[in-house]
Specification:
With 294 residues, this protein is mostly helical. Helices cover 75% and strands 1% of the residues. It has one domain: MetI-like fold, CATH 1.10.3720.10. The chain has a two-stranded antiparallel ribbon.
Amino acid sequence: MPSEQKQNKQLQKKVLPYLVVSPYLIHLLLFVFFPVAFSIVLTFHKWNIISPMEYVGADNFLRLIQDRLFWKALLNTLFFLLVHIPLQIVVALALAYFLNQKLLFRGFFRASFFLPVVISGVVVTILWQQLYGLDTGLINRVLISLGLGRVEWLTNWRIAMAAIAIMATWKNVGLYVILFLVGLQAVPASYYEAAEVEGATAWQQFRYITLPAINPTIFMVVILSTIGGFSLFIEPYIMTGGGPLNSTLSAMLYIYKQAFEYYHMGYSAALGLSFALLILIVVMVQKYTIESED
């Protein structure tokens, strides 16, 4: 009898861990592994949801190479990243450096900068759509009161994506301010004290102490901003619908249009897989570049 109880306890010890993690494993199988596997299979088929899937081989990828809008969406997304990432880093680092000083109501300012992050992206987008209004927008009203002309923020194809990048920076900067704050607070104060003894200026301390010390944080911000930039969807979908002249057509918006407006499910899956591989390549290049500079 004691031997049977001992065996039961040993069996429970072996089985219990799997029972504990089983809900998470089931979630992964149903909502991660299965959708990924199905989307990969779908890239080789033509399917409009209604009719049965038709195997087409590599036709979706051949179509992708010849698709002018695919390359347009890719260039728009890269342009967004070129504007958004440097602006995000500069603004977030400047605010974090300011909030790292001894200030009155420092906690209030930190919470205020983080507030846009927790607000719904749809709400923020509608707010900025009103601010960018041509005739009634607050920004143009201020420009007119200063004696300057109105700016076609969302109707001029040359600046529409840059305007969206500015809005996205305002929306997400609070998160990166917190990350930079953590990085700045991890720099030992003795480094700055030694630099002051040696006669280093504030800029030299920032250049040769602060920046190298927060290099891992900068890398994290670049990676997160890159992934977020390739995921750009809500802003152009609500503000411009991809216009004018497809100048704000992002990668995710184009995938959405192909899937849920034109019902080209196989082609949209091929687009999604291609953009996922592109994100991986860009992130690896960024990782190599930042680490080599470090």
